[in-house]
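Budget justification aside, the reviewers requested a transparent look at the raw inputs and outputs of the sequence design task funded under Objective 1. We therefore reproduce one unedited record. The lines immediately below are the structure tokens for a 284-residue chain.
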């Protein structure tokens, strides 16, 4: 497909960035895009489909660590834009190293996904596997990047020099409604390191965060500390949370927690990475 059709009506600066991304994608050739439902992989999938047409396919990994609401939203995006995809059941929960939840947990999750893609019969029709890492991810604690390197997975957004801000600006200019979608890391990222990841814990977290989202809190985390659920919301939302606290607390208790607390310092990405020395907090 002609990438110029993408950029014809855009600001010349953004148009130039998209043209560069299109060239990178075209240079890699036919590809499978690992799609998580987030803005990074969403933009990559959309542009790759415009550039490659039927020579691309998305793959989304389905497991207990993916919240049902996130899965539905991811599917809606693909259907809306006519992007072909495959669903793959991943079984990282069968790996005791993943369940042990050391700081390299994400490696085993991404490794499982990439192995499943490589072993699938349909993927053999595509030359590359790509994922939505951007320039900013390189300075975060992201063990999944090691799995990508091990499997020869490419990162077109990095190659085209897209950071998170440019990803969002580009997605907005293209009219992709996920341009301002908050980061939604996997549910396992809410479990403190070295506390075992189990399907039941992931269910509790998903249900508890569903309570918050049903009350209009778009950005939220529920950290799993045994019987205690620690809620993280942007500080601007705290007053509204206190107004509905009784309902919120009862809903989260119904998810399986005995106690519920609101973190006073707000939502902080990478809070659970404080226990490791990365030089910079990253993650969820």
């Amino acid at each position: 497909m002609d990438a110029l059709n993408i950029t014809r009506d855009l600001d010349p600066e953004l148009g130039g960035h998209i043209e560069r991304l299109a060239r990178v994608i075209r240079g890699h050739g036919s590809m499978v895009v690992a799609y998580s439902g987030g803005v990074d992989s969403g933009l990559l999938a959309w542009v790759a489909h415009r550039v490659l047409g039927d020579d691309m396919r998305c793959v989304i990994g389905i497991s207990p660590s993916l919240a049902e609401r996130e899965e539905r939203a991811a599917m809606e995006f693909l259907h809306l834009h006519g992007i072909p995809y495959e669903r793959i059941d991943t079984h990282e929960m069968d790996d005791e190293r993943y369940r042990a939840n050391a700081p390299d947990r994400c490696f085993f999750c991404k490794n499982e996904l990439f192995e499943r893609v490589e072993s699938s019969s349909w993927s053999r029709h595509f030359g590359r596997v790509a994922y939505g890492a951007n320039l900013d991810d390189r300075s975060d604690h992201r063990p999944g990047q090691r799995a990508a390197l091990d499997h020869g997975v490419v990162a077109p957004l990095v190659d085209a020099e897209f950071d998170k801000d440019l990803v969002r600006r580009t997605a907005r200019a293209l009219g992709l409604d996920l341009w301002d979608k908050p980061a939604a890391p996997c549910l396992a990222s809410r479990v403190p390191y070295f506390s075992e990841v189990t399907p039941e814990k992931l269910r509790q977290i998903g249900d508890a965060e569903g309570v918050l989202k049903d009350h209009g809190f778009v950005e939220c985390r529920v950290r799993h500390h045994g019987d205690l659920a620690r809620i993280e919301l942007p500080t601007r939302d705290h007053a509204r949370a206190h107004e509905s606290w009784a309902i919120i607390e009862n809903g989260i208790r119904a998810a399986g927690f005995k106690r519920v607390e609101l973190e006073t310092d707000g939502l902080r990405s990478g809070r659970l990475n404080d226990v490791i020395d990365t030089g910079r907090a990253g993650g969820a």
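Residues 12-28 form the longest helix (17 residues). The domain at 4-173 is CATH 3.40.50.620 (Rossmann fold). Computational costs for records of this kind are itemized in the attached budget.
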